[in-house]
Amino acid sequence: MYNILICDDEKDIVNALKIYLNDASYTLFEAYNGKEALQVAGEQELHLVLMDIMMPEMDGIEAMVKIRETSNVPVILLTAKSEDADKVLGLTVGADDYITKPFNPIEVSARVKSQLRRYMQLGAGNQYADILKCGGIELDDKEKRVLLDGEEVSLTPTEYDILKLLMQHPGQVFSPRTIYQKIWNDLPYGSENTVAVHIRHLREKLEINPAEPRYLKVVWGQGYKMEKGR
């Protein structure tokens, strides 16, 4: 059973999402502003949050930042087409994905299932080693932990998946489109900005100097790679 929080100040949107996510394995919780979302998050063990950006009292970005202080639960932002800057900001401060209004029911269901699968069964059944190392970075896929010089680093599920993909293939260059397809299991529309934001966030958490990264390298015009043998 998965606990999913739907937060939007428009009740019609909340009701529509409840219809789209009518699944016996989902327990759905409702909130209509950021403060209510935080209250639910403090009372329930959540496995996914669908969060509108523009809301009264406390907007979705601020609420997500507060949730991120104590939880790495996947957060999918609900955005309008005109909110491109807010999408980038949301990804920068910890969102895992976004869905643009008006919603496609099939897309909503697919993105929710994808995030739940990664969060609950991260890396299950793959053929790679449980522990991956690159310099001072150690990824323990059995315990779902990342250590930097022996200190645990808090990553969102999406950041974790991108890092694992790159660490499983040291030296191999992945284009933003390829990373997006592998991690999001979706067509790579708008993939470059989305992937770039997550890479930047990973660098901020894992690199001493994010502007001159030791590990997460960009190959201009091609994509990203994890540096070999660092």
Give a verbal description of the structure.
- The chain is α/β, with parallel strands linked by helices and 230 residues long.
- It has 2 domains: 2-120, Rossmann fold (3-Layer(aba) Sandwich), CATH 3.40.50.2300; 131-226, Orthogonal Bundle (Arc Repressor Mutant, subunit A).
- It has 8 helices and 11 strands.
- It has helices at 11-20, 34-43, 60-68, 84-92, 105-120, 157-168, 176-184, 191-206; strands at residues 2-7, 26-31, 48-52, 75-79, 97-100, 131-134, 137-140, 145-148, 151-153, 216-219, 223-226.
- A 5-stranded parallel sheet has the order 2-1-3-4-5, sandwiched between helices. The protein has a 4-stranded antiparallel sheet with strand order 6-7-8-9, with helices on one face.
- α6 (157-168) crosses α8 and α7 (176-184) crosses α8 (191-206).
- The radius of gyration is 17 Å and the shape is globular.
- The N and C termini lie far apart (42 Å).
How many extended strands?
A: 11
Principal-axis shape equals: globular
User: How far do the termini sit from each other?
Assistant: 42 Å
SSE pattern, N- to C-terminal? EHEHEHEHEHEEEEHHHEE
Average of the residue pLDDT scores: 87
Known CATH architecture of the largest domain: 3-Layer(aba) Sandwich
Strand content: 15-25%
**CATH superfamily of the largest domain, called what?**
Response regulator
With helices defined by DSSP (H or I, 4 residues minimum), what is the helix count? 8
Helix content: 25-40%
Uncertain residue ranges: 123-128
CA-based gyration radius? 17 Å
What is the CATH class name of the largest domain? Answer: Alpha Beta
Structural class: alpha/beta
Number of domains: 2
The main sheet orders its strands as: 2-1-3-4-5
CATH topology label of the largest domain: Rossmann fold
Task: Please outline the major beta sheet.
Answer: 5 strands, parallel
